[in-house]
């Protein structure tokens, strides 16, 4: 935590924007919340279609807060629709082996991981938290 994952994701999003690529940034929980609301209002397909028009989707803090099975399935729909058509950046502090627990559904986690690693690049961040080393309360 605090090693620059979100910072790098935002920088990559900014670079994409400079290259006329549309970018949308969400935390995992906010994206799932938007999808839940769309589903409740019978406009999930429209929301997924709109997301499908985005060149780069950034999903921040995946696994920081627990996600239930319905949330995992909604997230999977975004990822499955984007697979081989769009770019997605995730930030997470969890190893893939813990995604099943975090997503509340091991099958959905396995499907998401499968699509992620097929064409994806994994960057591992290590080190001391920037916020801890630069904290004003010492």
TrEMBL record:
The record's InterPro entries line, in alphabetical order, gives: IstB_ATP-bd, P-loop_NTPase
User: Locate the IstB-like ATP-binding domain: which residues?
Assistant: 2-134
Pfam name, any one: IstB_IS21
Gene3D superfamilies named in the record: P-loop containing nucleotide triphosphate hydrolases
Among the GO biological process terms of this entry, one is: DNA replication
Q: Which GO terms describe its molecular function?
A: ATP binding
PANTHER family membership: ATP-BINDING PROTEIN RV3427C IN INSERTION SEQUENCE-RELATED, CHROMOSOMAL REPLICATION INITIATOR PROTEIN DNAA
Protein's name in the database: IstB-like ATP-binding protein
């Amino acid at each position: 935590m605090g090693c620059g994952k979100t910072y790098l994701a935002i920088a990559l999003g900014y670079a994409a924007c400079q290259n006329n690529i549309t970018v949308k940034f969400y935390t995992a929980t906010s994206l799932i919340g938007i999808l839940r609301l769309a589903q409740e209002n019978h406009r999930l397909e429209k929301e997924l279609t709109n997301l499908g028009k985005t060149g780069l989707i950034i999903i921040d803090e995946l696994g920081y807060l627990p996600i239930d099975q319905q949330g995992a399935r909604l997230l999977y729909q975004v990822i499955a629709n984007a697979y081989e058509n769009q770019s997605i950046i995730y930030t997470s502090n969890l190893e893939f082996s813990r995604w099943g627990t975090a997503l509340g559904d091991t099958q959905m986690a396995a499907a998401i991981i499968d699509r992620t690693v097929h064409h994806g690049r994994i960057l591992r961040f290590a080190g001391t938290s920037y916020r801890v080393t630069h904290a004003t309360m010492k």
